[in-house]
């Protein structure tokens, strides 16, 4: 099995380097009541509507200017900032200045987070912060009792709230499906930031989660883990247990048009090589889609 996995991985990395247009397998039936099934149709490159981005938590040990420079080195143009790079309690003029600097560096600041919210004041602060910075999305974790306040704020500020799942040890939102249970009936600008790694650590196939959440899927954090359980640790994409090609094909079949942001959590002090390898694998998968 190890030999087969290494061979499988090399094939996609070769696609990333050489742009080989090979089909990556069957497309899926999208019934919400059953797993995706082979449809016999290849996934077309022209149908890829999502863009790749970066969650700046990847570069949490580095200054903002360093994080922006490394993001550009990865060939990305879209970023979500963690508060370590844009503090939540910054004055409005400082938020605007930093956001302007991000734009001036050639990057689109599309989101902020993950932002935790334990009071109504913290909810409002998060929305004011996002609006001031020009962010379209908050990737957040509001306490359950604050969801009516979040609902009011998404209407007032016209900023999306993508609630982030954090795996089997999280009491609020362990799985993407647990988020759906809580936001049912609220404004549709409240939805899911599907963390692929934490879904897998919860024993859930991320592709199935994407299908179940498709009507509320706002954002994606993509990563890989070493095991499909709570013991799973971060690893370079393609070296872990997640079926990344299947997940990306599923997003295409769902016509997902948001951002798939790499959140590389391994090697905090030297993340660039692993982040580059992870993006190379993703790009190899995408390069393998049929013309």
The CATH C-level name is Alpha Beta
**Unreliable runs:** 1-8, 10-14, 16-40
The strands making up the biggest β-sheet line up spatially as 1-2-3-4-5-6-7-10
How would you classify the quaternary structure? single chain
Share of helix, binned: 25-40%
Radius of gyration: 18 Å
The CATH superfamily title: Divalent-metal-dependent TIM barrel enzymes
Determine the mean pLDDT. 89
Task: Please give a structural write-up.
The strands form 2 sheets. The chain has an 8-stranded parallel barrel with strand order 1-2-3-4-5-6-7-10, surrounded by 6 helices. A two-stranded antiparallel sheet has the order 8-9. Helix content is 38%, strand content 17%. The protein is globular, with a radius of gyration of 18 Å. β8 and β9 form a beta hairpin. The protein is built from 10 helices and 10 strands. It has helices at 2-18, 64-73, 92-104, 120-133, 147-157, 176-183, 196-201, 206-212, 244-253, 272-287, and strands at 51-55, 78-81, 108-117, 137-142, 160-164, 190-195, 217-222, 224-225, 234-235, 259-262. By secondary structure, it is an alpha/beta fold. It has one domain (8-287): TIM Barrel (Alpha-Beta Barrel), CATH 3.20.20.150.
Short description:
By secondary structure, the chain is of the alpha/beta class. The protein has helices at 2-18, 64-73, 92-104, 120-133, 147-157, 176-183, 196-201, 206-212, 244-253, 272-287; strands at residues 51-55, 78-81, 108-117, 137-142, 160-164, 190-195, 217-222, 224-225, 234-235, 259-262.
